[in-house]
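Reminder to self: tokens first, then the designed residues, so the page reads top to bottom the way the pipeline ran.
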């Protein structure tokens, strides 16, 4: 696989995160001022005003983005052949008319929905599907979504104007929910010169229930119901206005009080949950892969020594972090996967708080008088966790300097090959899907941006890990596949190159007197496809 350009990655993630990313993938959380472009809620019952706690200045290109804001918005604007329910993640037909009849087959045929049109009125055709997948599978383009499809998908062929065939390299039953990542894009729009740059900048033309009407990257994005939509989940509101507010206090203010401008907000600060509930708002959470991770530069000593990386994980008082910073809405990581994940198993190496073991590992590695500059993203809950890390490391004799900053600044420095020691950031691969193969290949893939940052991909340990992961991808027997997954999760835990410290619960708040049909997600963003103004 060709190496991913971090310049492009930064433009499409716009954040972390992911999330993450890079909350996003990291959860994709870049900063921006409180909205100045709001159209307001007022008494307009045709309008849903939402507050998104992540930046809106990342890429909107569906083949590239990991921005929490853009991905959530694109789920309302675009469609895949199949889509998944935002909570259950069960697939359902979207642009396609039916689910695959045999998920173990190596050829899947889909018929496109009769009468489906783009937001400019032109019909959706098989050419659009082939065009989209050609970009996704192109090793030279090396778009982010490609890492989720190239391992198993050989090509996508046009059968006729309304029929396409997906040809697999080997049976891959998990492809059905994964197809929701591949948002089909109009060839007549995005094959034009400069169109991909326009997509990154916010140009969006889909076939979904809402069309974009305005995009102000540091402020807000507006939508209206698309009258020509004839798919399974039509728009339930005539208009939407999504505000981007990264600052926690400003975000809470938008949904607080009798004159609250917004009816819903995601990424609700833990410290404000009871306050909002007392005001009559519903505040619910979702537990998933949202996590804070530490990422080490293994090209910089002493972080090339696994004992040092392990020592720094053992030193962290995660219980204190959960109680103080997360207000109980988190759990110490016992695996790369969160405990609610169906493939979770406690890893062979678990970093319970053990300062004595941390000191012993540093001594064994011959490390004395270690000083660390911990660079981090400025996502509010991550910043809240930093003092616990610093205090924990100081307790084992490691001098620690904290350096939180805007997410884009963090990753620009690494993209420019500036030296760094350790980075703390947020991520949530559940933005893309739930299966373990997808989650781990998001972070651990040769040529991937995360492995580029860690400088670890060319090591013998990394090559053995990648081979084990590929073996699991191809394994059809579910029991054997799970054992392989557990085996490589143990390797990832032991190596601790990029590894979660805590998994957290994401909180969403809404006014039940003004909005119904809301379900809290375990990953950044919101889904309003079934929401209604009261």
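Designed residues (534 positions):
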């Amino acid at each position: 696989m060709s190496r991913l350009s971090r310049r492009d990655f930064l433009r499409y993630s716009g954040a972390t995160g992911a999330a993450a990313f890079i909350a996003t993938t990291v959860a994709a959380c870049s900063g921006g001022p409180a909205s100045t472009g709001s159209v307001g809620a007022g008494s307009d019952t045709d309008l849903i005003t939402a507050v998104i706690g992540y930046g809106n200045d990342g890429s909107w290109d569906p083949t590239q983005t990991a921005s929490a804001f853009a991905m959530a918005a694109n789920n309302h604007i675009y469609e895949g052949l199949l889509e998944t329910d935002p909570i259950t993640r069960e697939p359902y037909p979207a642009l396609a008319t039916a689910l695959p009849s045999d998920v173990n087959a190596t050829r899947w045929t889909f018929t496109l929905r009769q009468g489906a049109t783009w937001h400019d009125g032109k019909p959706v055709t098989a050419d659009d599907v082939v065009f989209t997948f050609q970009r996704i599978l192109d090793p030279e383009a090396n778009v982010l979504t490609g890492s989720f499809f190239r391992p198993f998908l050989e090509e996508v062929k046009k059968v006729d104007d309304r029929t396409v065939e997906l040809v697999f390299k080997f049976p891959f039953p998990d492809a059905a929910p994964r197809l929701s990542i591949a948002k089909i894009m109009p060839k007549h729009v995005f094959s034009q010169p400069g169109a991909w740059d326009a997509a990154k900048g916010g140009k969006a033309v889909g076939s979904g229930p809402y069309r974009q009407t305005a995009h102000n990257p540091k402020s807000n994005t507006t939508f209206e119901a698309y009258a020509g939509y004839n798919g399974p989940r039509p728009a339930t509101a005539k208009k939407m206005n999504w505000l981007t507010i990264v600052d926690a206090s400003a975000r809470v203010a938008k949904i607080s009080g009798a004159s609250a401008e917004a009816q819903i907000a995601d990424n609700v600060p833990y410290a404000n949950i009871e306050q909002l509930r007392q005001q009559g708002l519903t505040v619910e959470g979702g537990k998933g892969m949202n996590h804070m991770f530490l990422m080490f530069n293994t090209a910089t000593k002493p972080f090339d020594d696994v004992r040092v990386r392990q020592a720094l994980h053992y030193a962290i008082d995660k219980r204190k972090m959960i109680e103080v910073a997360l207000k109980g809405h988190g759990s110490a990581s016992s695996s790369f996967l969160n405990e609610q994940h169906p493939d979770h198993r406690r890893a062979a190496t678990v970093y319970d708080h053990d300062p004595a073991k941390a000191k012993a590992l540093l001594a064994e590695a011959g490390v004395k008088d270690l000083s660390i500059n911990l660079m981090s993203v400025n996502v509010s809950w991550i910043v809240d966790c930093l003092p616990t890390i610093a205090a924990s490391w100081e307790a084992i004799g490691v001098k620690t300097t904290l350096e939180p900053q805007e997410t884009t600044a963090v990753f620009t420095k690494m993209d420019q090959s500036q030296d760094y020691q350790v980075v703390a950031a947020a991520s949530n691969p559940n933005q893309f899907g739930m299966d373990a193969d997808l989650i781990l290949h998001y972070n651990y893939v040769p040529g991937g941006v995360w492995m580029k940052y860690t400088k670890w991909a060319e090591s013998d340990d990394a090559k053995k890990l990648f081979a084990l992961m590929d073996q699991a991808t191809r394994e059809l027997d579910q029991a054997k596949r799970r054992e392989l997954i557990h085996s490589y999760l143990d390797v990832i835990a032991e190596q601790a190159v990029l590894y979660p410290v805590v998994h957290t619960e994401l909180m969403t708040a809404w006014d039940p007197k003004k909005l119904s049909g809301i379900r809290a997600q375990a990953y950044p963003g919101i889904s309003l496809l079934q929401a209604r103004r009261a």
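The chain has 19 helices and 19 strands.
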